[in-house]
Structure formats: structure tokens, C-alpha cells
């Protein structure tokens, strides 16, 4: 009797100890369920892929069970020491453009699309050398992300996008709990100048009230050639175009005389002048002033579907505003549209498992309406600076779409004090661009880069993201 009761106490002790150890959920001690889910998302045998040592995962994360909304992700572990590296989410803009098509396959991912076979080549300057790298197609209607309720596609806007992306993250961390303790950062370009700060704000607010279980370890964000403020962005586009000898003195004067970019509706005189301004970007690439354009006559898909209601309110009323970015090989978008629509590629990525009724495109053809987009993101930036997030803004200086001029006007409007004056920064012996450090925000220019900065200056871009993630100043002298 005495013996068996001792034995019972001992058993109880062992059980308590074991369950406490399990509850601590150390990395590498994931439950069978979670491991099985991760295993199901593991990408193996991706057609045309160069061999790599790091693991990759892709698949769907449900964000709204009632509507049947699911967002598609592609995740790459860091090339080395993934357990010690931060987690970085990359977002492209549009709105409606794919982070797979642009971010992963044409800018900063490990596998860049190329003409012919093999279809993918390894990117020496891939950002998963600096971080565990997560690409998200957001919102529903973009790329492989879908909603089972087709009316959802007509009810999109900045607010829904941020809310769904937040739910994506909460649920993604449930599938990959080993990354919950990592420092988390968000980066993106273009219209992600709206998405990234808006998502950061949702996380920031939710962290204050949510159960610790859903806490997201957000440390900061970085945005490039980012749409931030209708007034300064549009003014900067016109000034940049004149200053880069793209428009005539007369067109410039007409815009200055007849347009007021604080208003969303413009006079006929203003619209006529803007038509002349946009006409120039029919013949040269607005996203990269000095790059060749794709002259492949078989393609008529330079133009994307127009979306009503997006920011900036004046310029988005013009068709050429909705033209898609090209790339360093200006025809590269054509190869990715073929590649991502291949059945074997979709199977390898666990994509399109519900037979989405339209093809994968770089920028959505099904989103045609946008319900909300604030005229300025500066109030959010101010709030998050005060909240202590690390914020870097960068700009490729040959982009005519959201030019460095626009961003400088925007930062002037933000009105921060300067901590370190405007100075060159270096990549080896060459000036990579200029940088200025404000109280709460760092601004970096990248010399000779178009809108999709990593496409044009891959080595300097990897240097930029490494310095951002480690919060280190860029080199101020040749080395
Ligand atoms: C959408 O519908 C398909 C087919 O019924 C189903 O398999 C899928 O799980 C649904 N998606 C979501 C996110 O509920
Ligand atoms: C531009 O429009 C804004 C808002 O309507 C107005 O406050 C401002 O005075 C206008 N600027 C000029 C120069 O007319
Ligand atoms: C999904 O697959 C169907 C064929 O089953 C195809 O018609 C459609 O274009 C695909 N859509 C996407 C977004 O890949
Ligand atoms: C800038 O610095 C001055 C002097 O220290 C201070 O009074 C002011 O509040 C600062 N402005 C901002 C926006 O931090």
C-alpha cells in the first residue's frame, strides 16, 4: 500500500514535469500536428529551381472562415542560422500587385525568373541571406490569394487589407510557432507605403490589448519609393519630370498654374496638362527613367486593370497611372506570368487548390474598386515613431513613379529634427547614394535605381536591408 502510493506520487511528479516541459514549446519540440502542417507546406521539386540548402514553404493561411478568405504565402528560411535571424515580411503594392511576381521572382527573393530554361536562377543577393523571408500575396484577389465569396473582391480597401494581413500573421505564427520569438520586421515598396505602416499600426494597437498568445514581436519597418502623401507625392512627380528633362516648360507651367494636388478633383485645364505629362510615360518607362522598355509586340499586357478610388486621388484617374512596372529585363514579367500559371509549378507551391476562376497575374485584373485610401500616411508614421518602432525610408533615384523628390517633400512635411546631416554612403569604393538621419526615421537614397530598387541595385539593396535589420549606419567612407 505504502509502496504503491509512493509510486503514484512519483508518477504524478513525472507527468507534471513532462507536461510543463512540453508547454514551454521549445523550438524543435513542435507538436505532431504542427509539424505535419509545416511538412504539408514544404516546397520540394519546384520546376526549374536551382539546388539550395535552405528550406522553403508555401501555401494558404485562412484569414476569415466565414467568408472563405485565404491568403497565399511563400516562405524561405534564412540561408544560414535561421534560428538566429529575424523574420522579414515583404509586401508589394499596386494595389493589387503580387509579392511573388515582383518581390520574390524579380527583386529580392532567392529564385529570379529568367527567359528560357531553367526558368529560375539563384539570386546571389537574395534577402534571405539577412533574414527569414516571408512573401505574402495580399489582399484576396491578388495572385493566388482568394475569397470563396466573390463579392469580397468588390469590398476591398486599405482597411480590409491591413486587417486581413494581420489575421494572416496571427494564423501564420500558429503554423510556424518557432518564429514567434524572433524579431519581426516588415518591408515593402510603392503602394506598400500605405500597406506597411497600416499593418504595423494594426499590430502595434493589437499588441496592446491582445492576449500574449497573439503578441507579434514587431520591431520596425522599411518602405521604398513609397506612396505616402497625395499632395507631396503628386507635386514631386511633376517637379521630378521637369527636372529630369522629361516634360516641357509649358506642360510644367500648366500643371503649376491649374492643378492643386490637395484636392482630388481637378479642373479641365489641369487634366489636359496631366494628360500631356502622362503621354511621355507611354514612350519611356515611368518606373525607371533610363531603362529600355519591353518592345515584344506579342504582348499587350503592359496596362493593368484600372482600380477606382485608390490614392493618389488625382493621378489615379489617368489610364497610364495603371501601367505595370517592367524590370531590368523589361520583358521579365512575361516569363513569370507563364511560369506561375503552369500546373506543375502551382502543384509544387500548393497554390490554386480550389481552382480559382481566373489566371495568376502580376497585378490583379479582378480588383476594380477600392473603398478607402487616406490622402496621407504621415499621421500613422508619426504615431509609430512615437511608439518607438525603427523606421527607414529609401528611394531609388531614377524612379519617376514615386520619385525621390516626392519622398523628400513628404519627409519635409513630416517635420522631424535632423540627427545626422545629409551625407553619402558607400558600397565598397562607390557612392551607393545619400542618407540623412532624422530623430526617429532614417532616409536612404539608392543611386541609379528605379522603382523596384533591388532589381536595379541588388548588391546595395542587400547591404541596405542588412544595415536596417541590425540598426547599423551605412558606411560613410569607402572601404
Ligand atoms: C473555399 O471553398 C473550397 C471549396 O468548397 C474549400 O475547399 C476551401 O477550404 C474554401 N476556402 C476557405 C478559406 O474556406
Ligand atoms: C489647394 O486646395 C486646398 C484644399 O482645398 C486649399 O486649402 C488651398 O488653399 C489650395 N491651394 C491653392 C494654392 O489654391
Ligand atoms: C487555377 O486553376 C484553374 C484550372 O484548374 C485555372 O483555370 C486558373 O487560371 C488558375 N488560377 C490561378 C490564379 O492560378
Ligand atoms: C526639434 O528640436 C527642438 C529643439 O530641441 C524642439 O523644441 C522641437 O520640439 C523638436 N521638434 C520635433 C518635431 O521633435
Give the SSE layout.
Elements: H1 2-23, H2 32-41, E1 56-64, E2 69-76, E3 87-91, H3 100-108, E4 111-113, E5 120-122, E6 132-137, E7 146-147, H4 158-175, E8 184-189, H5 192-209, E9 218-224, H6 230-243, H7 249-258, H8 268-283, H9 332-340, H10 343-348, H11 378-386, E10 390-396, H12 404-414, E11 418-427, E12 430-438, E13 441-446, H13 453-456, H14 458-470
Parallel strand pairs: 3-6, 3-8, 8-9, 9-10, 10-13
Antiparallel strand pairs: 1-2, 2-6, 2-7, 4-5, 11-12, 12-13
Helix pairs in contact: 3-9, 4-5, 5-11, 6-12, 7-8
Bound molecules: 2-acetamido-2-deoxy-beta-D-glucopyranose (4 copies).
Reported by name, the CATH topology of the largest domain is Rossmann fold
* Structural class based on helices, strands and sheet pairing: alpha/beta
Along the chain, the helix and strand elements come as: HHEEEHEEEEHEHEHHHHHHEHEEEHH
DSSP summary: helix tally: 14
Description of the molecule:
A hairpin with a 6-residue loop joins strand 4 and strand 5. The longest helix is centred in the first third of the chain and has 22 residues. It contains 14 helices and 13 strands. The chain is of the alpha/beta class. It has two domains: 296 residues, Alpha/Beta hydrolase fold, catalytic domain (Rossmann fold, 3-Layer(aba) Sandwich); 87 residues, no CATH class. It binds 2-acetamido-2-deoxy-beta-D-glucopyranose (4 copies). The site of one 2-acetamido-2-deoxy-beta-D-glucopyranose has 3 residues, from loops.
Amino acid at each position: 500500500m505504502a509502496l504503491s502510493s509512493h509510486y503514484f506520487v512519483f508518477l504524478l511528479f513525472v507527468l507534471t514535469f513532462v507536461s510543463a516541459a512540453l508547454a514551454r514549446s521549445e523550438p524543435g519540440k513542435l507538436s505532431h500536428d504542427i509539424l505535419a502542417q509545416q511538412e504539408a507546406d514544404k516546397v520540394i521539386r519546384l520546376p526549374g529551381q536551382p539546388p539550395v540548402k535552405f528550406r522553403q514553404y508555401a501555401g494558404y493561411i485562412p484569414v476569415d472562415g466565414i467568408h472563405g478568405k485565404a491568403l497565399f504565402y511563400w516562405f524561405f528560411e534564412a540561408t544560414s542560422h535561421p534560428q538566429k535571424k529575424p523574420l522579414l515580411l515583404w509586401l508589394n503594392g499596386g494595389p493589387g500587385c503580387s509579392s511573388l511576381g515582383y518581390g520574390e521572382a524579380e527583386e529580392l527573393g532567392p529564385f529570379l525568373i529568367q527567359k528560357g530554361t531553367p526558368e529560375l536562377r539563384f539570386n546571389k543577393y537574395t534577402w534571405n541571406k539577412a533574414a527569414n523571408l516571408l512573401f505574402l500575396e495580399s489582399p484576396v484577389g491578388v495572385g493566388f490569394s482568394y475569397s470563396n465569396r466573390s463579392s469580397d473582391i468588390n469590398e476591398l480597401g486599405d482597411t480590409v487589407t491591413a486587417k486581413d494581413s494581420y489575421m494572416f500573421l496571427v494564423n501564420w505564427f500558429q503554423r510556424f510557432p518557432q518564429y514567434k520569438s524572433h524579431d519581426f520586421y516588415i518591408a515593402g515598396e510603392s503602394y506598400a507605403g500605405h500597406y506597411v505602416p497600416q499593418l504595423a499600426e494594426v499590430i502595434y494597437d493589437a499588441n496592446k490589448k491582445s492576449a500574449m498568445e497573439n503578441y507579434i514581436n514587431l520591431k520596425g519597418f522599411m518602405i521604398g519609393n513609397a506612396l505616402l502623401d497625395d499632395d507631396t507625392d503628386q507635386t514631386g512627380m511633376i517637379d521630378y519630370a521637369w527636372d529630369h528633362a522629361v516634360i516641357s516648360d509649358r506642360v510644367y507651367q500648366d500643371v503649376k498654374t491649374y492643378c492643386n494636388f490637395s484636392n482630388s478633383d481637378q479642373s479641365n485645364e489641369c487634366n489636359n496638362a496631366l494628360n500631356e505629362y502622362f503621354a511621355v510615360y507611354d514612350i519611356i518607362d515611368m518606373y525607371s527613367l533610363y531603362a529600355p522598355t519591353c518592345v515584344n509586340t506579342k504582348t499587350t499586357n503592359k496596362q493593368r486593370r484600372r482600380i477606382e478610388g485608390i490614392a493618389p486621388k488625382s493621378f489615379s484617374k489617368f489610364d497610364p497611372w495603371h501601367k505595370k512596372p517592367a524590370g531590368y529585363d523589361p520583358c521579365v514579367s512575361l516569363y513569370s506570368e507563364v511560369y506561375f500559371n503552369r500546373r506543375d509549378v502551382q502543384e509544387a507551391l500548393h497554390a490554386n487548390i480550389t481552382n480559382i476562376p481566373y489566371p495568376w497575374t502580376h497585378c490583379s485584373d479582378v480588383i476594380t474598386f477600392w473603398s478607402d485610401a487616406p490622402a496621407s500616411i504621415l499621421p500613422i508614421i508619426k504615431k509609430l515613431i512615437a511608439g518607438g518602432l525603427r523606421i527607414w525610408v529609401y528611394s531609388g533615384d531614377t524612379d519617376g513613379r514615386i520619385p525621390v523628390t516626392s519622398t523628400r517633400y513628404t519627409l519635409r512635411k513630416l517635420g522631424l529634427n535632423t540627427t545626422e546631416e545629409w551625407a553619402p554612403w558607400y558600397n565598397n569604393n562607390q557612392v551607393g547614394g545619400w542618407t540623412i538621419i532624422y530623430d526617429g526615421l532614417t532616409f536612404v537614397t539608392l543611386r541609379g535605381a528605379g522603382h523596384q530598387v533591388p532589381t536595379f541595385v541588388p548588391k546595395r539593396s542587400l547591404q541596405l536591408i542588412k544595415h536596417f535589420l541590425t540598426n547599423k549606419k551605412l558606411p560613410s567612407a569607402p572601404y
